[in-house]
Amino acid sequence: MIIRAKALIKELDQADAEVLVPTVVVGEFLAGVPREQHGELVNVLNRRFQVPPYDVRAAAVAAGLWRDYASRKPTLRELIEAEFPGTQKAKIKADVMILATALARRADILYTHDGPLKTIANGLIEVRELQPVEVQPPLI
Fold first, then answer.
1. Is pLDDT above 90 for 132?
2. Cβ–Cβ contacts within 10 Å for residue 110, how many?
């Protein structure tokens, strides 16, 4: 996905697009990185992207999403469990927080390959996956 992500970032740069990376995503990313690299990576993310917090505005949006899904059948938890067996409740909460941050900041597009997040976001925001990139073979 690194090559795809780099291609997307280049495309968004050329379009002068504003790219948001919710702090919940930053936390998920940093969980897989050695602690001694966190400071440098956070600085790069802050310089390169908008990194909106999961704040009161996003929390209110998240609460609305939970309330909307609570009145549906199947509920959000049942829907995700049916489509993605074994998905933990904590992961669903994180996905709702990511989506809520994007919606609260009026993002136009959500880029993700995450199945549960795509399901939750369906109909609320345009969802796209990173597009495949043709990699040219090295010239020998």
1. no
2. 21
Q: Which domains does the chain have, with CATH numbers?
A: 2-128 (3.40.50.1010)
Round to whole Å and give the CA distance between 81 and 87: 6
DSSP class of residue 124? Answer: T
Q: How far apart are CA 107 and CA 103, in angstroms?
A: 6
Say whether 135 sits in a helix, a strand or coil. Answer: coil
| 109 three-state secondary structure | strand
Q: How far, in Å, CA of 81 to CA of 75, rounded?
A: 10
Note the pLDDT tens digit of each residue in 10-59: 999 899 999 999 999 999 999 999 999 999 999 999 999 999 999 999 99
Is the whole model's pTM more than 0.85, yes or no?
A: yes
